[in-house]
Amino acid sequence: MTKIRYKLKCFLTDATFIILGILSAGFGLEGFLLPNSFIDGGVTGISLLLKEVTGISVSLYLVLLNIPFIALAFFHVEKTFAIKSIIAIITLAIVIHFVHYPVVTSDKVLIAAFGGFFLGLGIGLSIRGGAVLDGTEIVAIYLSRKLNLKISDFVLIFNVIIFGFGAYVLSIEIALYAILTYLTASKTIDFILEGIEEYTGITIISEQSEEIRSHIIHEMKRAVTIYKGERGYSRENNEVAILYTVITRLEVAKFQREINQIDPNAFIVMNSVKDTKGGMIKKRPHI
Fold first, then answer.
1. Do the beta carbons of residue 194 and residue 200 sit within 8 Å?
2. Which pTM does this prediction carry?
3. d(C-alpha 88, C-alpha 94), whole Å
4. What is the pLDDT of residues 33-70, one digit of tens each?
5. In the chain, what's the furthest Cα-to-Cα distance?
6. Most buried among 42, 59, 117, 267, using CB within 10 Å?
């Protein structure tokens, strides 16, 4: 029974994220981008561009252009993910076609900024729900494995081509605004997926390791792992305790000050941590 409840809870959570994502993306497209002939990056950008050239509904292009990417995800990523994604994309197409959001503004800067924001918010929420509304990243992941190309590099190249066509077919001005829309959307997606509390992994080597360990546990209320290591530079008295903990980036400055008070000569290494699971740290909802 517990398993069933857990699965039901996960299903409802994912469905809520995806539905909110569809509504937000629909608002970004219908309320800002479509009425003002703006475009974006990715498959959504191609769909908007083709709509301007042919006059055919963007809903049709959203479904047709994403089908190859979803098929790729079905065979090379995960079947459940692909099924959820195609349902989300078809639902978005239906929403755009039948739900008519009010046109909010005709100011081009506001269109680019808030159109990108609501579109990025929708895509980010859908990813949190385990689906995508744009298949660009699926093919980016696939090709990065085959061609030893970074995902971000592929997405950048893909969008530069789209913006180039946009400048040729529409205007250079529209293409420049499209870049602003894309940047706003991508930053919004990053914020939705990673949040403000990005994590930092801290490695500490110090003669006062026991005092620092106690401070991290009792004062900062964080877990700490101790590795037994050896100094490589000096072979005399070379055993050393290596401390490792994870904190939010908002705590980094305070953490450094407090460690310096205990041992100003402590060797500290910091690394960005994208996500964590378990342990004594406030956790964002897992995707």
1. no
2. 0.72
3. 10
4. 888 888 877 888 888 888 888 888 888 988 998 898 88
5. 77
6. 42
* 170-206 pLDDT tens trace: 888 888 888 888 888 888 887 887 665 567 889 999 8
Q: Which residue has the tokens 């699971």?
A: 277
Share of the chain above pLDDT 90, in %: 11
Contact of 259 with 214, CB cutoff 8 Å? no
The pLDDT of residue 286 is 41
Alpha-carbon torsion (151, 157, 160, 164), positive or negative = negative
* 142 close to 72: Cβ distance less than 8 angstroms: yes
Query: What does the block give as tokens for 197?
Result: 């509390």
